[in-house]
Amino acid sequence: MTNKEMAQKINALRKGANLTQENFGKEVIHVSQATASKKLNGQIPFSAEEIFECAERFNVSTEYLYGREKENALAPV
77 pLDDT exceeds 50? Predict the structure, then answer.
């Protein structure tokens, strides 16, 4: 999975949670809105810690974010 694909997946989760880029940056990955925007557009890669934080916040597995699982295994059945 490319950085751009992961960014698109995280951005979709962010939008689904009704988080602005600013709130996502502050609350989830602890960066400014400008940096969050660049990460969500695939210009800057997410760090391993940020990927873990996103997985925790959006209740998905890191494997899902990395594209190794097609569906979210953590979703309620």
Answer: no
